[in-house]
Amino acid sequence: MAENVLYDELMRQLSADGSVRRELGRIVPGGCSDGSASVLAVLGRHGAMRIGRLTELLGVDPSVTSRHVAHLTMLGWIDRNPDPADRRSRILRLTSDGHTQLAELSDHRSRELAARLTDWSNEEIRRLAQLLSRLRADFDAQRTEPRTFADASEDARHPRAPAA
Amino acid sequence: MAENVLYDELMRQLSADGSVRRELGRIVPGGCSDGSASVLAVLGRHGAMRIGRLTELLGVDPSVTSRHVAHLTMLGWIDRNPDPADRRSRILRLTSDGHTQLAELSDHRSRELAARLTDWSNEEIRRLAQLLSRLRADFDAQRTEPRTFADASEDARHPRAPAA
DNA sequence: TATTGTTATACTCTATAACTATA
DNA sequence: TATAGTTATAGAGTATAACAATA
Q1: Burial class (CB in 10 A: 0-12, 13-18, 19+), B38
Q2: Taking CB atoms and an 8 Å cut-off, how many pairs form between chains A and B?
Q3: What pLDDT, in 10s, does the model give residues A9-29?
Q4: Cα(A127)–Cα(A117) distance, rounded to whole angstroms?
Q5: Domains of chain A
Q6: What residues of A are in contact with residue B120 (Cβ under 8 Å)?
Q7: Which alpha helices (DSSP H) does A59-95 contain, by range?
Q8: In the predicted model, is pLDDT for residue A80 greater than 80?
Q9: DSSP letter for each residue of A130-150
Q10: What is the C-alpha separation between A134 and B9, in angstroms, rounded?
Q11: How does the average pLDDT of chain B come out, rounded?
């Protein structure tokens, strides 16, 4: 497999990415943990939803979502109202305070990011965001539709993206 | 700041990247935790070094490096020999077993990555790796040379990368 | 006194398993 | 019986602070 070195290099960058991730974690302003920030962001972007949907979008175990949601509820940043259609569920919604916190968080992170990407062109920023988005989509597809061994060998024999 | 939305979008992708990161963590074969894998990779790429240097390259606290190194030493994948130049330090080096493990790890991860990026062109893979590398470099620079408030306001007034 | 590492402790994120309430 | 969500518990990664050994 000639392009193995390519995957290897990407893998290295994705792993070494830990330093970026940790730095991003440190950027979160006090009072808002990283996990909570993710929940706020998803609710802000997609609007009110049930825990199950939130769990899907975050790509974590339901127990994880449940904990973060409980935390944010205690902070008063989201509320949980009964779902009239199914009394096992509740609808999650950003409160007014939640919206404020999310806006502050977003501004703060954008500023910090801007401070680190001073010599990036808009096109480069856009390109990286786009590639990451696609990467995540491909990983998510893999996660929700586990492949069979047959699939894998089939793809190995007829790769959709032959060496360029 | 007109391009704020760009930073915001990249920030969203970087955060949502959690699902990719967790999946990568799950890809690591048994017996090798994610942190250990990073240490192996750095030693394999840069050769023998002291803990201090390893800590720098990983971008973590020295206590973290120390723990991972202790773990890998117990597994027999690296060894720690006294540094003749400074008896406070020891030189870390991959053992023969360590090299084997690293090779297996690398192959395994490349295969898993390949299975998820079947419709990516080599050029796209290369591009993402390159942008991530640059992102990390810029974050690292920021971390080791903390900015003053004066720097920050100066940059805000005279950004090095004006809107394209 | 300063530097290199190590250890003790605590906090966050995450997953698994057992459980409750409702469908 | 199956599903939505919660809670208890455990494991990994990380940081801070206190400490030991050497420079």
Answers
A1: buried
A2: 213
A3: 888 888 777 788 888 887 777
A4: 14
A5: 28-107 (1.10.10.10)
A6: 134, 138, 161
A7: 62-75
A8: yes
A9: HHHHHHHHHHHHHHHSPPPHH
A10: 13
A11: 83
